[in-house]
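[Q] Does anyone have a clean structure-token version of this?
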Amino acid sequence: MVHPLLFLQFLRGILTPLLFPVAMKAGGEALENAHKSVDNLVYTWLVMAILILVSFFATRGIKNMPGRLQNFMEVVVGGIDNMITDTMGEHGKQFYPLIATLALFILVSNLFSLIPGFFPPTASVNTNAACAVIVFLTTHVVGFKVHGFKYIKHFLGPIIWLAPMMFFIEIIGHFSRIISLTLRLFGNIGGHEIMIMVFFALVPFFVPLIMTVLGLLVCFIQAFVFMLLTMIYIQGSLEEAH
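[A] Here you go.
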């Protein structure tokens, strides 16, 4: 939900002068944007810290008879691994670290939107664009690594005399993936934040509770969609051009 007071808001006074000294002097809208960037950065670090700590404690003492945390993480890790295998085949396992990291980072970031006083990093275009660019670059680096210069055939289409036109269409289509991944996630999480705030102002109790439950579903769906599209894009770069 939209949080007028953030739990880690006090860090603005520490980090803003260090990271945005020009905005501090300018004030006004520039300072407000700097504060938003600091909030996004701080809560992104918090998501990263949570994932690192959970991973550390889950793997610190792996046992044949797992405890609750190890058992939970085995279910999560196994579920993502099965999904990658079902979608991409066995050769998709080499991309597990990237896909799983993006999925868990986006999911935890999304869930922050349900906690009062927390800012979800995925409600920022910058965070989503960074994830989308990583997927975009990975897709084409893998394509050139597997196929070499023949990867260009993916952009030329099946008809030779249409190749020049198809090349520019395909280039636009591939770059639009960055915009699509970015705005889909931003629109759903940011839109949910605004919608909860509006309903909370109109009907303070029952309706916001329902929307929060629906928001929980949105958090999981959007993480799944981003992960699925990442797998599809990478899988497409691995296939031979027709």
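[Q] Thanks! Anything notable?
[A] Helices lie at 12-19, 21-26, 28-59, 68-88, 96-111, 125-147, 163-202, 206-238.
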